[in-house]
Amino acid sequence: METKQLSRVDLIFKPEGKEIELLKKKLNEDGDDFILELIDSGLKGRGGAGFLTGLKWKLAREAKADQKYVICNADEGEPGTFKDREILERVPRKVFTGMALCGHIVGATKGYIYLRAEYKYLAPKLKKCMADLNDEFKKIGLEFTLDIRYGSGAYVCGEETALIESMEGKRGEPRNKPPFPVTEGYLNKPTVVNNVETFVNTMIISEIGFKEYKKLGTDHSRGMKLFSISGDAVKEGIFELELGMSLADFVEEFGDGDTKAVQVGGASGFCVPRKKFKETIIGFEGIPTGGSMKIFNSSRSMYNVLHNYLDFFQEESCGQCTPCRVGCQQLLLGIEAVKRRERPSSYLDELMKLADTMKISAKCGLGQSVGNAFVSIIENFREEIVY
Amino acid sequence: MSNTENFVKELADKHGRKRESLMPILQEVIDARRYLSDETVVNIARELDMSAADVYGTASFYSFIETKEVGQYSIRLCKTIVCDMKGKEAILNAIEETLKIKIGQTTPDRKFSLSTTNCLGWCHKGPAMLINDEVFTELTPGKVIEILENYMNR
């Protein structure tokens, strides 16, 4: 399989300035052409799920309705992820013009950013930026207005249909899919929900062209990605890297020399132990990530890590479906019981079966992905869980 | 009309009386009054033509919408793994000792409430906490006491 050397890229945080000019150019071009370019670029959603962005826009463009919506998902709640906050702090115009571009392409005149409550301190600056842009859109003849909505402390609202429910004034409980938001989303109208970083990527593609963009990354993981790096790292923070590098290269660059494991993709992602660093590729052909990379050195107890994640999930489960509501609780109680010797270590195998069941029976991505961290930590660090 | 009745009516005039107006209304109640009282729930339900149970059911889903009385300043300390690794426990102890309250409690003068919360998105600068909407990062026990003393004098 193709791997890339670890290499830094500097596209996302490049100074703002050209956005309106780029947008103006796109207004005079055929929207179908840009959709093809977007699909050709291979850009996949940067929130974690990785759906082909061009296809999402195409489906929304094809949907027939009197009103459509564009929503920017800024409900960044995955443990270990903080890149969207940084984007909104440093280059908000790129995000908002990306939303406007999407509006133009799919035929939506209204855009909302759904900002998590924890980032409310950003609101005054974002509102000012949106007001300025609303004027500028008018000036260039684009009918598109931006507005803001807030979360109120619920991780599950990062799931797009839960986010829509929340915007509609309801409990943030994910919907059944299909129908997908591109046909029935906010107020049952066709809606594109994309991550903050995804919108910035669409602006980058419209600036440098899909051919240049495609040169970055691998066949399955095109482009670059912001990584939120934290934990036992020599360098913590946000780094923009080409997709497709091996985890070994990553650890070499960012680890503290004593790295035992890396949690790729946050609490809902996978734990990779040292012996698998070489064979693990960071990207859609290996382990995809919304950007969260947490590094653990040998002083860390993986029992504590797993306990922390399960505590997180059982709090954040919306409680709507039984596999997730009861499953998260039982996984947490289960590892505690094994630790206290109230259950034999073989009980962990029962719990692994439960985690697998949750993967196929839970309603949304939250419940389905609890098993990722659970199984990968138990499989690789079983002795730490038992003793 | 009572104070709360007026207040809720103003919010409904501002945000609308549709179902999708509910979250902005609830959020502004929290901004102004820190928590959602039963009286406010009933008034919102009346303005939006919903059942009070539906308003409460929605509100109580969200961890930042308090439905029990809390202090003027809500302290939310991040307890997710990286902040935990970076010494969250020592920060928690410092807060508890300074304010003489435990997690889930409010000071007798109704000034501070303490809770823990999930990932705030500051892992690279942990431990982190929020006081209402304000963010504090790279906390040390000394630093957190200083911050609290600052708030006590407000």
Show the helix and strand layout.
The complex is a heterodimer of chains A (387) and B (154).
Chain A: H1 19-27, H2 31-41, H3 53-62, E1 69-74, H4 83-90, H5 92-106, E2 110-115, H6 123-139, E3 145-150, H7 160-167, E4 191-195, H8 196-214, E5 224-231, E6 237-242, H9 247-254, E7 259-264, E8 270-273, E9 292-297, H10 302-316, H11 322-339, H12 347-361, H13 365-386
Parallel strand pairs in A: 1-2, 1-4, 2-3, 5-9
Antiparallel strand pairs in A: 5-6, 7-8, 7-9
Chain B: H1 3-15, H2 22-33, H3 38-48, H4 52-59, E1 73-78, H5 81-85, H6 88-99, E2 112-117, E3 129-131, E4 134-136, H7 141-152
Parallel strand pairs in B: 1-2
Antiparallel strand pairs in B: 1-3, 3-4
Helix pairs in contact in B: 1-2, 1-3, 3-4, 6-7
Description:
By secondary structure, chain A is of the alpha/beta class. Chain A contains 13 helices and 9 strands. In chain A, helix 10 packs antiparallel against helix 11 and helix 11 (322-339) packs parallel to helix 13. Chain A is globular, with a radius of gyration of 21 Å. The relative contact order of chain A is 0.13. The two termini of chain B are 32 Å apart. In chain B, helix 1 (3-15) crosses helix 2, helix 1 (3-15) packs across helix 3 and helix 3 crosses helix 4 (52-59). With 154 residues, chain B is an alpha+beta fold. Chain B has helices at 3-15, 22-33, 38-48, 52-59, 81-85, 88-99, 141-152; strands at residues 73-78, 112-117, 129-131, 134-136. Chain B has a 4-stranded mixed beta sheet, covered by helices on one side. At the A-B interface, strand 5 and helix 10 of A face helix 2 and helix 5 of B.
Keywords:
heterodimer, A: 387 residues, alpha/beta, Rossmann fold, de novo design (two linked rop proteins), 2 domains, five-stranded mixed sheet, four-stranded parallel sheet, 13 helices, 45% helix, B: 154 residues, alpha+beta, Arc Repressor Mutant, subunit A, Glutaredoxin, four-stranded mixed sheet, 7 helices, 4 strands, 47% helix, 12% strand
